[in-house]
Structures are given as C-alpha cells and as structure tokens.
C-alpha cells in the first residue's frame, strides 16, 4: 500500500475522524489527488488542483465509492452462493440459482471497477470487513431472509449509482456506471419477482421510488424502518440517494 494511504489510515484510526471521513478513507483518498493531500504538516504543500486534476479526483472518489458498495453486494451474495458460509441455509433451487447468478454479477462489478480505477492510475479502495449480523438479528437465516435482504440492498445500489452519475466528469465512466446501474435495477426486479412467486412479498403491487425506504418513514436511513415489500416493477423514476445517505445506511454493516 502506498505510504500516502497508510498515513491516511493511521490518521483515521487515531479516533479523530468522523464516520464520513472513515468511509472516505475507503473511497476518497486513493488516486490522482491523494499525493496532494498527504504531505507532512512540517512541510505543507501548496495544494491547488487544476480543474482537470479535480475532475479526475472526483471521478476516482466516485469509482471507489461504487467499489465499496459492490464489495458489500458481492460479499453478501458470496455468503449464500456455493461455498459461502450460508450456502447450506438456502433450500429452494430458484433461490440458490439467484444467489449464484447475482454473486457472479457483483463479483464482475468489483473486478471492472477495480480495473477501471487502476487504468486511471488510482488506487482501488481496500475491501472493508463486513458484518451483516446487525441486519440479521435473531431472524432465521433462510431463503426468505436472503431474498428480503437482497430486496433491501439492490434498490440502494440503484439509487446510489443514480446519485453519482451526474457527478462523473468522464463520459466513458458515465456509460460504464449506466451499464452497472441497469444491472442493479434488473436485480431489483428479479429478486422481487421471485419473492412474489414464493409468497414472501406481502405488497406485490406497491409502487415506490424510494425503496427500500418505507411509506411510514420515508426519510429514515435505518434498516429497521425499511420495507422490502414492493412491486417487481416498482417505479417510473427512482429517487437518487447521496453519498452521505448511503453511508448512513451501510455504516452498521461495515466494521
Ligand atoms: Fe453490483
Ligand atoms: Fe446488485
């Protein structure tokens, strides 16, 4: 790991960082602009990015943000796919098939984002340690729980990409983000179709543009307030989530 990133992590682990800064340690301080923000206090540099450097830095921050979210999705599905810790907890063939297929997609998303960041001379974010137990609680780990969690994570991914597309400056990256965003939306519908088919979805006709947030608490960022029951074709226009909103949602599962 480059010295500049180690310095940043040491600073973050010093306890003075806010949650946002800790998260930004994963997503924001690796890449084109990092050298310019990591010089020693004894020798303060003149920090002035050109507009092109600033644009490149912003793109890398967004790519690393997406990478962390894809790490999360990939780890979740890998836990339930063949060879995963919870693979034996899935009993239904359709569900096992979805776990394997979507795990493959998420692992591909991790790879393409990592490769893209490297190709742009950035440093891919380190994979965080995830712990999904705050979402699982005392619930039995089974097909129904797996699909409910998938129906929670997937629209967050859709809305997270939506929140960043207009902030990307490189047209090629906008196209790539759009391509992944579309697949996340496919995941939303596929998972929800299966939940309907299996009788797990109590509101299969509910239209919503803020899933997994609920009607009762539409602005809550707490998983306990979310509602995974919505239509497999949930909306005409999704509402975006900002980085801060997504951070607040995923923070409980990042150790
Ligand atoms: Fe993904
Ligand atoms: Fe996904």
From TrEMBL:
<dbReference type="InterPro" id="IPR006311">
    <property type="entry name" value="TAT_signal"/>
</dbReference>
<dbReference type="InterPro" id="IPR012347">
    <property type="entry name" value="Ferritin-like"/>
</dbReference>
<protein>
    <submittedName>
        <fullName>Ferritin-like domain-containing protein</fullName>
    </submittedName>
</protein>
<dbReference type="Pfam" id="PF13668">
    <property type="entry name" value="Ferritin_2"/>
</dbReference>
<dbReference type="InterPro" id="IPR009078">
    <property type="entry name" value="Ferritin-like_SF"/>
</dbReference>
<dbReference type="InterPro" id="IPR019546">
    <property type="entry name" value="TAT_signal_bac_arc"/>
</dbReference>
């Amino acid at each position: 790991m480059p010295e500049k990133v180690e310095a940043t992590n040491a600073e973050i682990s010093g306890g003075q960082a806010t949650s946002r800064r800790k998260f930004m340690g994963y997503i924001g301080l690796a890449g084109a602009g990092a050298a310019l923000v990591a010089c020693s206090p004894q020798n303060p540099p003149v920090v002035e990015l050109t507009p092109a450097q600033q644009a490149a830095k912003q793109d890398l921050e967004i790519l690393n943000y997406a990478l962390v979210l894809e790490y999360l999705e990939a780890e979740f599905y890998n836990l339930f796919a063949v060879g995963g810790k919870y693979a034996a907890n899935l009993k239904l063939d359709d569900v096992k098939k979805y776990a394997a297929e979507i795990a493959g997609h998420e692992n591909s998303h991790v790879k393409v984002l990592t490769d893209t960041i490297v190709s742009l001379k950035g440093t891919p974010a380190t994979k965080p340690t995830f712990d999904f137990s705050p979402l699982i609680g005392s619930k039995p780990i089974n097909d129904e729980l797996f699909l409910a969690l998938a129906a929670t994570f997937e629209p967050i991914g859709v809305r997270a990409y939506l929140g960043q597309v207009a902030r990307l400056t490189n047209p090629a990256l906008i196209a790539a983000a759009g391509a992944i965003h579309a697949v996340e939306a496919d995941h939303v519908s596929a998972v929800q179709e299966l939940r309907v088919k299996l009788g797990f979805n109590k509101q299969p006709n509910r239209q919503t543009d803020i899933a997994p947030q609920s009607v009762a608490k539409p602005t809550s960022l707490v998983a306990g307030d979310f509602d995974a029951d919505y239509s497999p074709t949930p909306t005409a226009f999704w509402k975006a989530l900002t980085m801060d909103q997504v951070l607040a949602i995923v923070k409980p599962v990042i150790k």
